[in-house]
């Protein structure tokens, strides 16, 4: 049995506030809204009868025991006692080190898909319990909807967001999340908000990303890229609207929000016409990006209904 072409969507943080630290372990307490977008990794799963979990791909610098997809599969095995195994294939499109949750999404898709392939029958709540030890962002991908998140990211409440599309722009940089959360200059005392505060203005213009100042100080290329993007978009829009360029998660990926995919596609074309993408042509006065892509915001995770209850 096989499950092929199984999507693992990226996420963006519409805002991200650090409101404190948890007593005991010092984990950072956050408030954020997660939204899925249609930039996806693709996974493939082949059933193995011998109980082995193997990879049909290579992630440079990531041995199997550290790979979140392998860890997710083994966590599901251990929780259910199944004797089934799987060979996992992965096609990466979500850039690593971008704050788009690619590894977390791959892990969640692995839990959801293998729960189906192995017929282990875990509920959404049970899969979310397995997801949290894998990473703070993993549960929201199992949750399956746009969500207001609190705590360390595990306290999730569904929110309804208006249609929107985004231009995703990954500068030629990767940001280690741990480094930023350890930064002594990171803001850790933002005032808490209520869901109702966000729902009064449910767009990326709400709030801010508290991680941006610490990231920009350590990675000036990202700050320069954000400024350049904003200036290019203002030219394209002829100052008809305020352009908000924000970083997702701990970066390095930046995004700008638009009311339609058509607008985002036009913005992508404008940007790529005047810059270099991953070493291709043009003036060194323009920043270099690993990714420029117009991407639609999703209403829900594409695998939301793969979980029966």
Automatic annotation (TrEMBL):
<feature type="domain" description="GHMP kinase C-terminal">
    <location>
        <begin position="204"/>
        <end position="275"/>
    </location>
</feature>
<comment type="similarity">
    <text>Belongs to the GHMP kinase family. IspE subfamily.</text>
</comment>
<dbReference type="GO" id="GO:0019288">
    <property type="term" value="P:isopentenyl diphosphate biosynthetic process, methylerythritol 4-phosphate pathway"/>
</dbReference>
<comment type="function">
    <text>Catalyzes the phosphorylation of the position 2 hydroxy group of 4-diphosphocytidyl-2C-methyl-D-erythritol.</text>
</comment>
<keyword id="KW-0414">Isoprene biosynthesis</keyword>
<dbReference type="InterPro" id="IPR006204">
    <property type="entry name" value="GHMP_kinase_N_dom"/>
</dbReference>
<keyword id="KW-0547">Nucleotide-binding</keyword>
<dbReference type="InterPro" id="IPR036554">
    <property type="entry name" value="GHMP_kinase_C_sf"/>
</dbReference>
<dbReference type="InterPro" id="IPR020568">
    <property type="entry name" value="Ribosomal_Su5_D2-typ_SF"/>
</dbReference>
<dbReference type="Pfam" id="PF08544">
    <property type="entry name" value="GHMP_kinases_C"/>
</dbReference>
<protein>
    <recommendedName>
        <fullName>4-diphosphocytidyl-2-C-methyl-D-erythritol kinase</fullName>
        <ecNumber>2.7.1.148</ecNumber>
    </recommendedName>
</protein>
<keyword id="KW-0067">ATP-binding</keyword>
<dbReference type="GO" id="GO:0016114">
    <property type="term" value="P:terpenoid biosynthetic process"/>
</dbReference>
<dbReference type="InterPro" id="IPR013750">
    <property type="entry name" value="GHMP_kinase_C_dom"/>
</dbReference>
<keyword id="KW-0418">Kinase</keyword>
<feature type="domain" description="GHMP kinase N-terminal">
    <location>
        <begin position="68"/>
        <end position="145"/>
    </location>
</feature>
<dbReference type="InterPro" id="IPR004424">
    <property type="entry name" value="IspE"/>
</dbReference>
<dbReference type="Pfam" id="PF00288">
    <property type="entry name" value="GHMP_kinases_N"/>
</dbReference>
<dbReference type="InterPro" id="IPR014721">
    <property type="entry name" value="Ribsml_uS5_D2-typ_fold_subgr"/>
</dbReference>
<dbReference type="GO" id="GO:0050515">
    <property type="term" value="F:4-(cytidine 5'-diphospho)-2-C-methyl-D-erythritol kinase activity"/>
</dbReference>
<dbReference type="GO" id="GO:0005524">
    <property type="term" value="F:ATP binding"/>
</dbReference>
<feature type="active site">
    <location>
        <position position="11"/>
    </location>
</feature>
<feature type="binding site">
    <location>
        <begin position="95"/>
        <end position="105"/>
    </location>
    <ligand>
        <name>ATP</name>
    </ligand>
</feature>
<keyword id="KW-0808">Transferase</keyword>
<feature type="active site">
    <location>
        <position position="137"/>
    </location>
</feature>
<comment type="pathway">
    <text>Isoprenoid biosynthesis; isopentenyl diphosphate biosynthesis via DXP pathway; isopentenyl diphosphate from 1-deoxy-D-xylulose 5-phosphate: step 3/6.</text>
</comment>
């Amino acid at each position: 049995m096989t499950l092929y072409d199984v999507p693992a969507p990226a996420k963006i943080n519409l805002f991200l506030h650090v409101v404190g630290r948890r007593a005991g372990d010092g984990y950072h307490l956050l408030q954020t809204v997660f939204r899925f977008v249609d930039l996806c990794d693709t996974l493939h799963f082949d059933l193995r009868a011998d109980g082995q979990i193997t990879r049909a791909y290579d992630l440079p610098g990531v041995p199997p025991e550290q790979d979140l997809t392998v860890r997710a599969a083994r966590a599901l095995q251990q929780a259910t006692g199944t004797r089934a195994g799987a060979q996992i294939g992965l096609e990466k499109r979500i850039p690593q080190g971008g704050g788009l949750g690619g590894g977390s999404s791959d892990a969640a898709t692995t839990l959801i898909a293998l729960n189906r392939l192995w017929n282990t029958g875990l509920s959404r709540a049970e899969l979310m319990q397995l997801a949290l030890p894998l990473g703070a962002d993993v549960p929201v991908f199992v949750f399956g909807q746009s969500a207001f998140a609190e705590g360390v990211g595990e306290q999730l409440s569904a929110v309804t967001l208006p249609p929107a599309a985004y231009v995703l722009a990954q500068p030629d940089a990767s940001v280690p999340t741990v480094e930023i959360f350890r930064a002594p200059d990171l803001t850790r005392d933002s005032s808490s908000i209520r869901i109702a505060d966000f729902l009064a203005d449910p767009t990326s213009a709400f709030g801010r990303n508290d991680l941006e100042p610490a990231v920009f100080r350590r990675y000036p290329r990202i700050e320069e890229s954000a400024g350049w993007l904003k200036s290019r978009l203002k030219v394209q829009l002829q100052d008809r609207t305020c352009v908000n360029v924000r970083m997702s998660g701990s970066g390095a990926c930046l995004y700008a929000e638009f009311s339609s995919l058509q607008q985002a596609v036009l913005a992508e074309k404008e940007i790529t016409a005047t810059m270099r993408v991953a070493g291709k042509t043009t003036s060194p006065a323009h920043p270099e990006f690993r990714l420029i892509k117009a991407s639609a915001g999703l209403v829900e995770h594409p695998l939301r209904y793969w979980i029966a209850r």
